[in-house]
Amino acid sequence: MDVPKPGPALFIQPHYDDVPLSCGGTVALMSERGDAAHMVTVFAGELVDEMVGEFAAWKHSRWKVADPEQVQRIRRAEDAAAARALGCDVRWLGLPDAIYRGDRYKSDSELFGSLRGEEMDLAAHLAEEIVHLPEWRAGTRVFVPLGIGAHVDHQLVFEAGRHLASRGVEVYAYEDCPYAIHTPAGAAARLAALGDAVGEPFSIAIGATLDRRLEAIACYTSQVPVIFRFTDDFRRAIADFAQARGRPGEPAERFWPVRPRGQRHEDRA
């Protein structure tokens, strides 16, 4: 079992909630230790009525929020509360969520499918934006989603991570929850699709901070009933999943080193 290396880190989440759901225990560990750990929410741009099509409106109805201005206000308030629970700060970037990017993704089958070729430039743009954030420091490690579940925004942020790795940045992919919980075969499918893009996984013990991860997840009151509609107790679902990633009695979170494009072997420190 590994421990986080000291130093600054950026935890990049496609949407409000992805980092607390997936690796909040590690963020809390680093924050407690005094490391400069920051959350960055990518698809958090301004939202206006014209951006909300039929599919996006259906998503809003599931969150029990209709007004676009209210959607952003609520989601950002939840994100800020979760960051406080983990002991870190959060920065919101200006890109629009996939459901607001015109008519590219108009159904769940498209949203959880192949990333459109014309959007690959977004990954390079995002990588460039990340290294110019005020929080960026020499030696900053970057954490991105592995892309389990095939959400196009998660895939896009992973590709941004590969761009960063190609620039010499130390990049790790976290295990996307709740997708990895709801679809146990999802991790294997994603790893098979990625091939040599990632190295061997390692786990970080989070027994000391699991409760803080759960507290942070609970802050997303508009999302928890939708995300965990298949279970009566999201805390138990998260705790059981974390326990399965560690040794007996020692819950953990799992990560993969992200390799630069064209690199086939990885030596992890």
UniProtKB/TrEMBL annotation:
InterPro entries: GlcNAc_PI_deacetylase-related, LmbE-like_dom_sf
Region Disordered, annotated ranges: 247-269
Lineage: superkingdom: Bacteria
Gene3D superfamilies: LmbE-like (3.40.50.10320)
A Pfam family the protein falls into: PIG-L
Stated name of the protein: LmbE family N-acetylglucosaminyl deacetylase
